[in-house]
Amino acid sequence: MGMKSRPHDITNLPARYQDFFNEITVFIPYNRVFADPIRTYAYGVDASLYRINPRLVVKVRTIAEVSAILKNAGKLAVPVTFRAAGTSLSGQALSDSVLLVLAGGWSNYHVGQAGNTISLEPGIIGAEANAYLKPFARKIGPDPASINYAMIGGMAANNASGMCCGTADNSYKTVESMKLVFADGSLLDTADISSREQWAAAHPALMNSIAAIRDEINADEELRAMITHKYKIKNTTGYSLNAFVDYQDPFDIISHLMIGSEGTLGFIAEITYQTVVDHAHKASALMIFPDMDSACRAVMRLTRPLVAAAELIDRVSLTSVEDKPGMPAYLKTLDAGATALLVEIRTEERAALLRQIEEVKGLLADITTVFPIEFTDIKAEYEKLWKIRAGVFPAVGGIREIGTSVIIEDVAFPKEKLAEAVLALRECMNKHGYESGIIYGHALDGNVHFVFTQAFNTQAEYDRYQLFLEEVCAMVVNQYDGSLKAEHGTGRNMAPFVELEWGKKAYSFMQRLKQAFDPAKLINPEVIITDNPNLFMENLKPMPKTHEVIDKCIECGYCELNCPSHNLTSTPRQRIAVQREIARLEKSGEDPVRLQRFIEDYAYFGDETCATDGLCETTCPVGINTGTFTKAKRSVRVTPQAKKIAKFLAANFAGITTMAKLGLGGVHLAHSVLGTCGMTGLASGIRTLSGNRIPQWNKWLPRGGAAPVASGRNRESRLKAVYFPSCLTRMMGPAKEDPDQRQLSAVMLSLLDKAGYQVIYPAAMDKLCCGMPFESKGYFEAADQLSRELEAALLACSNNGEYPVLCDTSPCVYRMKRVMDKRLTIFDTVDFIHDKLLPKLELVKSPETVAIHVTCSATKMGLADKFRTIAQACAAKVIVPEKVRCCGFAGDKGFEVPELNESALEHLKEALPADCKCGYSNSRTCEIGLANTAGLSYQSIAYLVDQCAR
What we know:
Blueprint: H1 15-24, E1 33-34, H2 37-42, E2 56-60, H3 63-76, E3 80-83, E4 98-102, E5 109-112, E6 117-120, H4 126-133, E7 138-139, H5 152-157, H6 171-174, E8 175-181, E9 187-189, H7 193-202, H8 204-219, H9 221-230, H10 242-246, H11 250-258, E10 267-274, E11 276-277, E12 281-289, H12 292-299, E13 309-313, H13 315-321, E14 339-347, H14 350-363, H15 379-390, H16 392-399, E15 405-412, H17 418-431, E16 438-442, E17 447-454, H18 459-479, H19 498-517, H20 572-588, H21 592-608, H22 615-619, H23 626-637, H24 640-651, H25 653-689, E18 720-724, H26 727-731, H27 744-754, E19 758-760, H28 772-776, H29 780-797, E20 805-807, H30 810-819, E21 826-827, H31 829-837, E22 846-852, H32 856-860, H33 864-874, E23 875-879, H34 893-896, H35 898-904, H36 908-911, E24 916-921, H37 924-934, E25 937-940, H38 941-948
Parallel strand pairs: 2-4, 3-4, 18-19, 18-20, 20-21, 22-23, 22-24, 24-25
Antiparallel strand pairs: 1-2, 5-6, 6-10, 7-11, 8-9, 8-10, 12-14, 13-14, 13-16, 15-17, 16-17
Helix pairs in contact: 1-3, 8-19, 12-17, 13-16, 17-18, 20-21, 24-25, 24-29, 27-38, 31-33, 33-38
Keywords: FAD, Flavoprotein, Iron, Iron-sulfur, Metal-binding, Oxidoreductase, Transit peptide
Cofactor: FAD
GO molecular function: D-lactate dehydrogenase (cytochrome) activity; D-lactate dehydrogenase (NAD+) activity; FAD binding; iron-sulfur cluster binding; metal ion binding
């Protein structure tokens, strides 16, 4: 029984949850509500050290859906938790009840006032918001390290800050207005007067509570002074009580209370930010001090706006990255106590940049450094320095002992106490056996992170961690008057310690706030406010050894935005989490029924719908390619008989290509005779009768290919290139509705001829293949056999690598580059056109608007910019759909599992303007899927270049 057929099994749920399910599925489609064990387990993971499984997962897409769900939750007393990207580090995105996940949708935005404001729905990634503002030289204030992966909803709800925004430009300081949904399902737009009036009239008790708390806090001089003092440094512990000190208007107070409330007071459906300047000039210096005390004293002399950032990096941190590629050699020579300070200056004018550099040097002139302080304003050089800082946390995750968790804690100290406090923190870590832990962070704000690895295999390990955390909390609060959470949010992690930091009186106001906004305690319960003193020690996630490819995963979720199946079934993080649970159950033997169900359901959830594109690796901090893991799992399942068949097919590959051409030719003929409607009906019926075993047909399926024929035009040319048309190119020609009916190989030859190249073909080309189709299915031996044969043929015809080798299909090139003799210089279509052909061709730009799709393999080979450059040289306007990454066609997956392709390209059509009539890519199967979704032809980028080349 497959996963697809049972995601809605609610029979084991308590009655109120069954009622809740039945109520919400009146307006939420079944394919966005899940109760099955594997999906609920997969969503029970975030970037924190906790794991909690929800009973139900609901993917919400509109504000109306959230409102209706909250009304039903209130009626049935069902707790709910909101979740954005799940990059949270303190356990605030988890639930043992109903998890409401932002999926699809939530991506509308509006740039206002020439870029001075931007309105954002909560599903927009932080970096996307900055991309929208880039034309205005503006950006949003918050700049967390996770900005490329975290969503705006989570960033605002956690008051995430980062390296440069400090306390001046965070969400609290830059929020202008919000659209909110409250626990009773009511809606409020704080920018709309009529909305404010209607909401206030309907909520007199809540309005009175806000006014009463405001007045009581402001009447208490001692409490008011404490609140003001505590927000001079970063602080995300508890609720934003400063809202009552900074504002009088109840709606201003509500907006600012929502910042940092972690979904416990309501849902942020839209936020409007006041933006900040994105400075044009930058310079950075990696300052090395002989010890921590010197580095901290240096920081204490630096302030904004003189410097934008000052990142503290201790010696253990530097050691963790010193062997990484591109790191400065001198890192290995530093003494044991050496500490780095990475300082950045940002200005709008270059003259100001130079003045501020000299001012910083002057301020630090009497503090001893290991090397003289030198700033660089060369982009490549300062980016190299920032890679040191960016690599610290991933390095710890990568070298940790398998089975341990990576724990990152986050505190802030008054800057005048920073040196003493950081040394005390290091002493405490060493005392409890965390000598290998690292200390780094945003020292300009007194904010440091400490990272260590921890096993929870024995009671002694639990006890050690608990004692250490309790001692750190006491030290931060009692000795240094600091913040227990500076920017990562309270979550479950620090909820038991909020009263310790704030005191009984201030904490009582926070309890009153929760009671006023959520009297039934139904939205994200136990986060920020809890009566459970042991909450931070409960539901700690297991990290069992699973497979060498994925064991280093720290479950941060940075992989998820690239995954083509993330809105269909699972993401790389979820696949790994499920595999860890399978490994745990296999080892413990505790629940064989659950284990068997996980194994069965994973077939579709994790395997069949994995495109194995490897884009997850490009954003994974520890470099995990979950596609490689999937292929490895497939190879283990390959039977001896299947291996024999694969080897036979590889040995007779010429016959396979001939049969494929004949088959495609027959289908093309049927399409021509029956027409698209008739063929669609026939093909659909046959696929249904076969139980979906017959691949799905669409009108963009090409006719059979043809062998390339060299023109011989440049026979005497000194320019020589080996051209290997991939097996896909040889098997597949144009589709019936493609505007250019030439074979791709003919187009490539035309371009090579125009550029003056003599074309050389490998011998016996019909039987050659790079092995990619076999590798993706797990037939590694057959794949390698074919690769070796192709490698030998290419070496022979390229004069042992003297001539460049051109292959016209990007996934094939990606494999060839990985596995073949390094004497061969292998080019993808895009690479070859950009580097070799464009300088030799005269291009006449087309007035057309065209779309391009950079395949996942081209992305991994770093060809995106070259692809865009080629297209812009050929067409008046080039569209690159921002939300389309991998197309999910994945070789033949688009035929076998078409829903993967459909889900991956969900946002393609909406991104294409009406005047866009054709698209271009560099993989034939990807082009089929793109064309079918977009409703317009996609062909190789070579077609566009050849049309424009003279």
